[in-house]
Amino acid sequence: MDRLQRLIPALIWTALYAGIALYALDDYMEWGSNGFILGAATVPVVLRADAGQKRSLRYFYAALACCLLAWIIPAKTMLFATLVLALCFLADSFFGKINTLPMMAMMLMAPVFQYVTNIFTFPIRLHLTRLAGGILQLAGRDVTSEGNMLMLNGTEFSVDPACMGLSMMITALLCGIAAIGIAQRKTGKSLPIYLLLAWMAFILLLNTGSNLFRIVLLVQFHILPDNIMHDVMGIFCLGLYVLVPVFYLAPRLVNRFGKVPAERPVHPPHPRYMVLQAHLSLAACIFLLAYKTTLPREIIFATKAPTIEGYAVTPLKDEVTKLEHEGALVYIKKIKDCYYTDHHPTICWQGSGFAFKKVKEEKIGGISMFASTLEKGAERLYTAWWYDNGSLQTASQFEWRWNALTTRSRFALVNVTAASKEALIAEIGRISKGRAVQRTMGLE
Question: What is the dihedral of CA 383, 388, 394, 398, to 10 degrees?
Answer without folding.
Answer: -110
